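User: Protein folding is very new to me. Would you mind checking the protein record under this note? It all follows right here:
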Amino acid sequence: MKENSVGLTSTKYFKLKGPFTLENQEHLDDVTIAYETYGELDSGKNNAVLVCHALSGDAHAAGFHAGANKPGWWEIMIGPGKAIDTNKYFVICTNILGGCMGTTGPASINKKTGKPYGLRFPVITIGDMVNAQKALLDSLAITRLLTVIGGSIGGMQALEWSVRYPQMVFSAIPLATTQRHSALAIAFNEVARQSIMADPNWHNGDYYEAQKPDLGLAVARMVGHITYLSDEAMRNKFGRRLQNKKDFSFNFDADFQVESYLRYQGKKFVERFDANSFLYITKAADYFDLARQPVSDPNNLTFANAGAKYLVVSFTSDWLYPTRESKTMVKAMKKNSLDVSFCEITAPWGHDAFLLENKRLDTLVSGFLVRMSQEITDAF
């Protein structure tokens, strides 16, 4: 275990009291939220940092669970002396509503039937995820957040937090994200969802007591994984190199390294993720739109109620959420006279660049948090 790790951690669970009302006006009677915390809340309660994960993440963002060798999904960013320094900040990370890593989702037991929800789980939004996180923070008596940070769908949550609870969010760091999905992003998500629903083992979402739609979910992950990489990354990593072969097999085996890699990623994914959660979370991402109303210039109104200070970061090779979408976001923020910093980081790895070690990103996040810490202390 590395010295600059938060060390051993454990996942905690919070049960919401009473029914939880969703944006579509449906209700969940029982909601459990899985979360982890690192560091200590200071006496002024001004150092809380909420970390929001992407599609397939969980509450285990840093440190190690007992008996496990794999660290949290953002171990490179969170810990003593790291960009999100747990010697300075109190860090909270939750598994999102609709997930399958401890928080209530379609695989959870519906107490009314005694069986998993499946498709009887109501359709959720990014706003619902944020409201569930808000309920957890209320239980922890956290009334202010120094910052909310996240990449991809986590970045959507950070943006949603900043406009939904402006009095609570002092700053936000949306990474490799967008304020609304493009047709291209929706299209990739729909192909992935259709691959799950076309699997004969899906059974309209009721597969929990039988064979699961592993093939469909694996293909969905393969489709998604392509969007997380860049042409340059795939070209450099794989090219047209063959996988343990001297010549073509002249059948439908995985001849090329890139084929073998995608099949491996798909197989690994089905071992830890629920197919229905994939459907629900990608649908929530497709529904996400900060403007939410057909106005002539939605970008001028998107951040009208926000008061947070922003650090927006994009990556040159991210074609899923390209830099132009971040620039549109920044323009909307500036139209509303918000304090916003923007940086496009040169990186060849595509959309997943925010999850990989990057000194430039570390410096930006660390410096921004130091400035925000001073400003929040001055303000309160």
About this structure: The mean pLDDT is 95. The chain has two domains: 12-182+290-379, 186-283. The longest strand covers residues 32-38.
